[in-house]
Amino acid sequence: MALSARRRYRAVDYWPGFVDALSTLLLVIIFLLTVFMIAQFILGREVTGKDTALQRLNAQIAELTELLALERSGSRAAKEDLSSMQANLSALQAERDRLKADAASGGDKARAEGARASDLAGQLDRERELTGRALSQVELLNQQISALRRQIAALEDALNASEARDRESQTKIADLGSRLNVALAQRVQELSRYRSDFFGRLRQILADRPGVTVVGDRFVFQSELLFDTGQAELNDAAKPELDKLAAAMLELTRDIPPDIAWVMRVDGHTDVRPTRGAFPSNWSLSAARAIAVVQYLVSKGVPPERLLAAGFGEFQPIDAAQNEDAYRKNRRIELKLTER
């Protein structure tokens, strides 16, 4: 009667399940934070690249603006020279006309003035030639200014396009993070549903079996049900129970979509007393027992990629007391359906 009461008391111990649920939620939050940090890192790299390109374009625009100012200054100087040449040309033309008028009045004076008029006419031709070259320079400067303006306009268009691509990239990253969070939440919800269904089936299969208890979202097998003392080889009494477990897992493998990453984790635990015989430590004994369970399930057709063996030795006790009842509780094999 006392053992039955203790077994019923252990069956309603929800605290370990609550702790495991909190652990799973914490892992999901850590994963989401990792995804968010990766997205921020990618966005930071793209923004840094855009800033570098923007600085380079601004430097080119500043350089072209300076060249445009120099060209404008040269154009103004050429125009001033042209105006001065045109004034000199007008003065020479007036002087030539005056000399022609004086030459018409006759005499030696007219011949002298005529010679001077010829000199002035030569100077006038030279001034016209210089004026033509100045006009050509002005035209060339105007063409260079137009080309610089087109380059500045092209750089401004490239800068606007770069900023538009940057805004588009930020929008895409935000959308990707949102969709990733939704997909992750859906996968976690689906795995939780399949975990609930699977453990519901196991409760039906292993109901009221001595040495088997349910603690939260884990099935706990006492080691004595599966192994002899100090041994890691499954005894004959363990195999029928593990056969039922393998059948349930095969059915679960068919039900869960292949894109959901899940594994059945088999955890081996021992009590605190040192081992004797073939195993140098409780750690090695617990790991060997977990591996033995995994290998048996594989032999029954369970895919090995859906199984995980772990040994915890005496370092995860259920009961920290130093007595036979605590030792018996701590010697166990735990099964837990979890994410890979």
Automatic annotation (TrEMBL):
It comes from Hansschlegelia zhihuaiae. CDD domains: OmpA_C-like. GO terms for cellular component: membrane. It holds the Pfam family OmpA. The chain crosses the membrane at residues 21-43. Residues 215-340 form the OmpA-like domain. NCBIfam families: PRK09039.1-2, PRK09039.1-3, PRK09039.1-4. InterPro entries: Bact_OuterMem_StrucFunc, OmpA-like, OmpA-like_sf. Residues 75-102, 138-165 form a coiled coil. Keywords: Coiled coil, Membrane, Transmembrane, Transmembrane helix. The keyword Transmembrane applies. This is Peptidoglycan-binding protein.
